[in-house]
Amino acid sequence: MGRIVFYEDKNFQGRRYECDSDCTDFHSYLSRCNSIRVESGAWVVYERPNYMGYQYVLTRGEYPEYLRWMGLNDRLSSCKMIHFVSQPLPQS
């Protein structure tokens, strides 16, 4: 299970929106996104709704401003959690 928190302003200030699963459009909750906390898991965040536009892969950590995830602007609208599949090691 993963969790990501989007903040309207830099340094984790202002309104926030939390996700623990894929979200096709959170733009109606936040008009802009200037900081992100990835509490667990790995995520792909997208500039536009429905997983469109520029995309950024984020791993666990804090991103106090959009430049930290190499964002071009403060616009994000959708996200998907990356699901890792592990396979057993071959037996010798």
TrEMBL record:
<dbReference type="InterPro" id="IPR001064">
    <property type="entry name" value="Beta/gamma_crystallin"/>
</dbReference>
<dbReference type="InterPro" id="IPR050252">
    <property type="entry name" value="Beta/Gamma-Crystallin"/>
</dbReference>
<dbReference type="GO" id="GO:0005212">
    <property type="term" value="F:structural constituent of eye lens"/>
</dbReference>
<protein>
    <recommendedName>
        <fullName>Beta/gamma crystallin 'Greek key' domain-containing protein</fullName>
    </recommendedName>
</protein>
<comment type="function">
    <text>Crystallins are the dominant structural components of the vertebrate eye lens.</text>
</comment>
<keyword id="KW-0273">Eye lens protein</keyword>
<comment type="similarity">
    <text>Belongs to the beta/gamma-crystallin family.</text>
</comment>
<keyword id="KW-0677">Repeat</keyword>
<dbReference type="Pfam" id="PF00030">
    <property type="entry name" value="Crystall"/>
</dbReference>
<dbReference type="GO" id="GO:0002088">
    <property type="term" value="P:lens development in camera-type eye"/>
</dbReference>
<feature type="domain" description="Beta/gamma crystallin 'Greek key'">
    <location>
        <begin position="2"/>
        <end position="40"/>
    </location>
</feature>
<dbReference type="InterPro" id="IPR011024">
    <property type="entry name" value="G_crystallin-like"/>
</dbReference>
<feature type="domain" description="Beta/gamma crystallin 'Greek key'">
    <location>
        <begin position="41"/>
        <end position="83"/>
    </location>
</feature>
<dbReference type="GO" id="GO:0007601">
    <property type="term" value="P:visual perception"/>
</dbReference>
